[in-house]
């Protein structure tokens, strides 16, 4: 039987977590007000008795009301007991943006995404689930909304008491990624701070910024930095592609050097969005590329032996307090306190989330094998 580590039937702690998840869901079902009760009064009563925030209460009540709209997913949640309210709330928050005629598709998407496909699989974090929900909506329920930067008050200046001015910019994920990349490149070129880099750009100094998109030549789906692109953003970014590189065969690439090549780095950042340690949300751009089998022990510099680790977990692994092993299917097996956990890559080049260039036979073979 396949299972996530949080609902491992042979682990007593996991068994308690499953019970707690089911208990929490039932708790909010019991607290659901009747349809004719006053909304604000109902939330106030629950807030006074639980000490929970009104925002959280409203989110949990909405979840128990919305879940019957996606019955197959609800059956999965009740069967496995693997999702806590934070993850369920992230899903239902996205679900309310899905039109009724697309909810059956959304239901199937959720079941496919949150059904374990191997033993000891790591359950996706709420942030990863939210990202995948945004991906679904942008692909199947696109909404023509103006960019946040187009709003009249998107850029705000506030004078502080000490005489300086703080600047706030509201931007979409892809726009923010572009701004950050430009500032970081300028700071690197001029060996200065990000603030001084901004001034350099305003004053007309040039800097060359290279950002990778992942997808086909004419359909970029994901922007380096952690953003699944909407259809509108795809149209924008595909016109900015100046060169392409084939990464399908790079899993077997190899270098004699300790440092990965540029292509290997691009591949790893396309396979992982965060530190590969289960439960860690540190972004891949803030991680170090680590040899799973250590270089000093003969571990090769090749994609199957390279993964991102944040500084904290890299130090743990170096100290021998964290064990990990590469597996033939591209996942990574971590052993934490004697417990095996499979870390499944969740980036655009990962096996589970790659959506382009998929052949029918390969897709069906993968589904049957799962």
Topology readout:
Blueprint: H1 12-31, H2 39-50, H3 54-66, H4 71-80, H5 85-95, H6 103-113, H7 126-140, E1 155-159, E2 165-169, H8 173-190, H9 194-202, E3 213-215, E4 220-223, E5 227-228, H10 231-238, H11 262-271, E6 288-291, E7 306-309, H12 311-318, E8 323-326, E9 332-336, E10 339-343, H13 360-369
Antiparallel strand pairs: 1-2, 3-4, 4-5, 6-7, 8-9, 9-10
Pfam families: HNH
Domain HNH nuclease: 263-315
Organism: Corynebacterium deserti GIMN1.010
For the structure shown, list the relevant keywords.
3-stranded antiparallel β-sheet, globular, DNA Binding (I), subunit A, 3 domains, 370 residues, disordered C terminus, alpha+beta, 13 helices
